[in-house]
Amino acid sequence: MATMRFFVLLALLIPLYAISVHLRPPSAEDVLDVHIIAHSHDDVGWLKTVDEYYTGFNQSIQDAGVQYILDAVTSALEDDPDRRFIYVEIAFFERWWRDQSEKKKASVRRLVKEGRFEFINGDEATTHYSGVIDQMTLGHQFLMKEFGVRPKIGWHVDPFGHAATQATLFSDMGFDAFFFGRIDYQEQKWRNDTREMEFIWRNSKSRGEKTDMWSHVLYASYSYLPGFAWEYGDEPIQDDPRLFRYNVRARADVFAELVRERAATVKHNRVLIPFGEDFQFEKALLNFRNMEKLMKFINGHPEYKMKLRYSTPSIYLQSVKESNPPFNIREGDFFPYADRDHAYWTGFYSSRPTLKLYARQMNGLAHASDKLFAAANFKPSTAEYRAAREKTSVMDDAYGIVQHHDALAGTEKLHVAEDYILRLSMGQHKVEEVVGQSLGKLMGAGGDFGFCHSLNESICEHTEDLNGTVAVTFYNPVAWQRSHFPRFPVTSTDVEVMDSDGQVQKAELFPNADDENKYDLVFVADIPPMGYATYFISSQKTDYTSLVTGVDIEGGLKLDNSEISLTFSDTTGRLDSATNLREGIELDVTLDYLWYNSSTGTSDNRQASGAYIFRPNGTYPISDVRPSITLYNGTLLKEVRQKLGPWLSHSIRLWQGTSVFEVENTVDTIDISDGLGKEISMKFSSSLQTDGKWSTDSMGVEMIERRRNVREWPFNITEPISWNYVPVNEAAYLSDSSTRLTLVVDRSRGCSSLEDGSIETMLQRRTLMDDRRGVGEPLNGTERVRSSTYVHVSSESTAAPTQRSVSLLINNPAVVAFRTVDSTSIPNGGIPFFSRTKRLVWSGIRALPQNLHVLNVRPLDDGTLLVRLHHLYEKDEHSVLSQPISVNLTEVFSSLKIASAQEVSLTANAKVEGSVTNVEIGPTETKTFLIRLKE
Ligand SMILES: [Zn+2]
């Protein structure tokens, strides 16, 4: 691959606000204050499952048992008051804690209180703000309950890049600092050389300096200094001259030299030395004893000009603050990450797409279930309340674990990915029981509801085996009225849909794309804000349900609804333009699919494409053949289906009254019989003049502008494609001065704009080799992946409302619950008896402004409700909707009688001063409250 050289003057890109820097390199007289940070990096599932890691099963895969680490570390700390240790992974700690005696718990509480055992926090990878807040809340609530402590430090030593929103969230959680390990190797070198390893991260355009985060990049990695990994078998320290192989001076010289190397990368005389590795400190004494011999020797010899001590990031930070050096400002995020030439970790953005989608959907379901459960108002003293909370905790646990950086990232072994999916699926079943229980109480109908888990695979027993009538209740977790288009598989054309007033609804049947014996039933369900509506589907003939049959189109095609018009080319048979009819904006835009050949290494560089790393070796079209066009021209839905290759097809859909079009692609098992690994991207190419720029979201909050082939430090480009890949979690767009092309995605993916006017996202990856970053397996994605992308063409000024609302609706899908209705209770042609006795339509909230999202309403065991409100827009994104929002909390929830309310920190572990009758929420801000209801 050709290597290009670019250099962009950094000074131009550092904001003018930056404090002027007068470097004072440590003089020879300075004594270095060396902070030894003992830690263990315990992945919550990677090569082994979370429970295997905890218990120590499967040692042949990896020698790791976290329970023994915690046993050993706490005992070693009890033995010596100078020792300190930091711990991150609450999922493991919580398992261990359950197992401890009261005596041991008292001892550990003392260690925590004295700052000798400190909890800090970690994890991020293709995450969404909603899930991260949930996971952190779970951990912080546990720590507050058991120890009365608030973590104040982010310690992301292993995640593969860092999202700006993560730093914003840490700030909102009251964190003082963020330590991380992995940034682009070229930026890291530049920062090392210029003493810029510590800086102020201005992480949000909207929040500005309010959420600034002091940040520290580890010098190399979170590992032991090389040669001092005693648990791995490095030479022990021998400091007794009476014994053979005395080596302490020689070892101390090496250690001191390594410390000095690190000292040269910061602006003060404090040095942070990580002391640990993955699953280390099972032999805590081996580590501590050797380090103590080294410390004793160095501290006893002033010629080393350094003092070593056990420390924690909090103590280090405090010490740095005392020296008060000036720090520069860093904006943006830390994607993409590369650890060397040809090794961009941009593959994991798209690895294991089904796990990424499932996790996102389960977060939506869990939030919906919480809201319903709160609305149903079960009393904490009752058995049904406790049973429901027990069920919810299964999902909480599963979802928290899946946030891990080797989980959602898709960089775990296959059997570990299956373990995550199993846990989520157990959580799903439990949470659905809570949904049923809550709906039953609200409807006065008992809790006997059924659910369909494979609707996107066209499987649903409740509608397929229709014999009589099924009641379908749709719950809308969003605080706006919503028109939902359900699509249910049915096996007969004799189907009628009725609303709760007994009005027969317009419905349409489309031949099912997966199974010729089925039809997709489509209708419109209107659901009130944070409420539900019930419809009835019956097996009977009706004129209101029509069958839409497919028509093969030979030439070109124009497809439109009231809002948008699409054209398909006469010659290529492919989409070639989209027009926003309301705004009169037409854009030439084509949709193509391509595959990258996964590199298996080249003669000059062995790096292969794999779970973490995307290294393409050539770009190819999926097919040059003109695809056939089959049109289904309904009223509620207009759909074009196209087969694009032996394992790729898509449907392009226009739903009635909507201004976005949906592209649903189906990637079946990718053919690798030609011996080539393949990574599949969907690419839109337009006439937009984009000047090398495009934008993608940061964890679903702010949009970050990306610039092709531009960095703020000296660089070489060794991988021109993958180094321009960044994650998209919610939305991406391209724009010129007048028009914007927006994509809203259903899950996190990799995204790039490799030429002006084009934007692509990666759908599935099937690589042949491991990429040698530890997982030890090729990423062999063989499952069928069905993904949806919602596309919008508009003016710049009207784009944001559509992007934000479509994203919100996708991430918070309507919950669909089925219930069989006894057909004998339906009078001839009339409303089912069921409908006349139950509360079929209900709303728990007055409709809120379009820029305000009720993120959580969650009952807590002390009888309070945890409520989070989130401003969906960023600063200057929209003239009206980006303005701060004022709400009166006591008026928002029409169904709740609020006795008192208190604003709290983001993870509800500290009180915050603020009004609750006049809450002001600024752009992108999330505010959290604890509400007590009247008895
Ligand atoms: Zn890790």
3D structure, described in words:
By secondary structure, this protein is of the alpha+beta class. It has four domains: 4-327, Alpha-Beta Barrel (7-stranded beta/alpha barrel), CATH 3.20.110; 353-376 and 419-547 and 820-843, Golgi alpha-mannosidase II (Immunoglobulin-like), CATH 2.60.40.1180; 592-629 and 667-785 and 787-810, Beta-galactosidase, Chain A, domain 5; 852-933, Immunoglobulin-like (Sandwich). Helix content is 24%, strand content 30%. It is built from 17 helices and 50 strands. The protein has a ten-stranded antiparallel beta sheet with strand order 23-29-30-31-32-42-39-38-34-35. Strands 24, 25, 26, 27, 28, 33, 37, 40 and 41 form a nine-stranded antiparallel beta sheet that branches. Helix 12 packs antiparallel against helix 13 (414-443). It is globular, with a radius of gyration of 29 Å. The termini are far apart. Mean pLDDT is 92; it is low at 1-23. Bound molecules: zinc ion. The site of zinc ion has 5 residues, from loops. It holds the Pfam family Alpha-mann_mid.
List keywords for this structure.
binds zinc ion; Glyco_hydro_b; Man2a1-like_dom; Immunoglobulin-like; disordered N terminus; 7-stranded beta/alpha barrel; globular; 935 residues; alpha+beta; 30% strand; glycosidase; 17 helices
What's the gist of this structure?
This protein has 935 residues and is an alpha+beta fold.
